[in-house]
């Protein structure tokens, strides 16, 4: 399908890409596109706090009620993003799903490379499991992340199984980063011109997994995992004009082959980053509604045996 008119208009509104961006410029760019997100709905209770030693923002759709909780892990190439860049999407998910949303402001690279971002997400999840956060049912947790956040969600979901922790009820992987190899056809087809570039991804990988880090380890490249059986049901969303398209779809197939229930969706005509920009993309609002409905369905089901 041709590039969607909303994607084309968005790309035309962006400044020209930088040839050799600094970390600070990449972070500024990630924050700048938040203006395309629009305001989110009011949430019954919103709290900025520290959970497990990590800054977080908690969105509670109901007060004084223990609810299932989705840990939201923002994208930004492990380099950018914060509690504000994805605020609109988090508000919408909380209101539409009926779940609490805990957004994690994990440490960023390159100052804090692998495994620091993963460690922070797991620290937050451990505190939620303990039931120490008001309004959070620590027995009903899910993971949701976009891009680099989708990478962290995939890794944390698998590690929880390996550590024999109570399973997450759901993993939502929105155009996730899955493979450090960066050799799939979509990296060639969509190398530049659609927002996220192949060069940009190489920069992000160098920040996250610098020299000395084994990029073939499954905690770094989820595509290298050899056993995905027993992982939580997954929603894997990819988009047509995205370097990450093929690796996300390959991972969805790997999960399905391992017997994991998977809903895999390719959004045709669409580009990376659209999910967090609902004011600018009809597809964003549709995807947020879809993942929210899936969370609501999960909450209505009996808890699985751990």
List the helices and strands and how they pair.
Blueprint lengths: L4 H9 L9 H10 L12 E7 L2 E7 L6 E7 L13 H11 L2 E5 L11 H14 L6 E11 L1 H15 L8 E4 L10 H5 L8 H11 L25 E8 L3 H13 L4 E10 L10 H18 L7
Question: What does this molecule look like?
Answer:
The protein contains 9 helices and 8 strands. It has helices at 5-13, 23-32, 87-97, 116-129, 148-162, 185-189, 198-208, 245-257, 282-299, and strands spanning 45-51, 54-60, 67-73, 100-104, 136-146, 171-174, 234-241, 262-271. Strands 1-2-4-3-5-6-7-8 form an 8-stranded mixed β-sheet, with helices on both faces. β5 (136-146), α5 (148-162) and β6 (171-174) form a beta-alpha-beta unit. α3 crosses α9. The N and C termini lie far apart (43 Å). The model has no long low-confidence stretch (mean pLDDT 97).
Provide the structure class.
alpha/beta
First-last Cα distance: 43 Å
Overall number of structural domains: 1
**Proportion of strand residues:** 15-25%
Briefly, what CATH class? Answer: Alpha Beta
CATH architecture: 3-Layer(aba) Sandwich
Provide the residue-averaged pLDDT. Answer: 97
CATH topology: Rossmann fold
* CATH superfamily label: Alpha/Beta hydrolase fold, catalytic domain
- Uncertain segments of ≥5 residues (pLDDT<50)? none
Tally the helices: 9
**What is the number of beta strands?**
8
What is the gyration radius calculated from CA atoms?
A: 18 Å
Query: Could you give the order of strands across the largest sheet?
Result: 1-2-4-3-5-6-7-8
């Amino acid at each position: 399908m041709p590039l969607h008119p909303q994607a084309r208009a968005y790309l035309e509104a962006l400044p020209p890409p930088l040839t050799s961006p600094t970390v600070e410029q990449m972070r500024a760019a990630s924050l700048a596109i938040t203006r395309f997100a629009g305001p989110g709905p009011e949430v019954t209770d919103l709290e900025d706090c520290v959970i497990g030693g990590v800054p977080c923002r908690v969105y509670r759709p109901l007060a004084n009620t223990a609810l299932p909780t989705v840990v939201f892990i923002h994208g930004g190439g492990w380099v950018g993003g914060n509690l504000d860049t994805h605020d609109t999407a988090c508000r919408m998910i909380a209101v539409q799903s009926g779940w609490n949303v805990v957004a994690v402001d994990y440490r960023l690279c390159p100052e804090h490379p692998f495994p620091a971002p993963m460690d922070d997400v797991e620290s937050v999840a451990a505190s939620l499991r303990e039931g120490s956060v008001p309004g959070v049912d620590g027995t009903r947790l899910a993971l949701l992340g976009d891009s680099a956040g989708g990478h962290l969600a995939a890794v944390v979901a698998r590690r929880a199984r390996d550590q024999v922790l109570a399973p997450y009820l759901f993993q939502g992987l929105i155009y996730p980063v899955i493979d450090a190899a960066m050799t799939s056809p979509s990296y060639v087809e969509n190398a530049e011109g659609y927002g996220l570039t192949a060069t940009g991804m190489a920069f992000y990988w160098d920040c996250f997994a610098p020299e000395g880090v084994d990029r073939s380890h499954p905690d770094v490249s989820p595509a290298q995992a050899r056993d995905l059986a027993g992982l939580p049901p997954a929603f894997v969303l990819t988009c047509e004009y995205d370097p990450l398209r093929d690796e996300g779809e390959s991972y969805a197939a790997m999960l399905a082959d391992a017997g994991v229930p998977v809903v895999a969706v390719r959004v045709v005509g669409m580009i990376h980053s659209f999910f967090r920009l609902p004011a600018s993309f009809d597809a964003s609002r549709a995807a947020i509604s879809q993942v929210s409905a899936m969370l609501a369905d999960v909450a209505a089901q009996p808890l699985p045996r751990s």
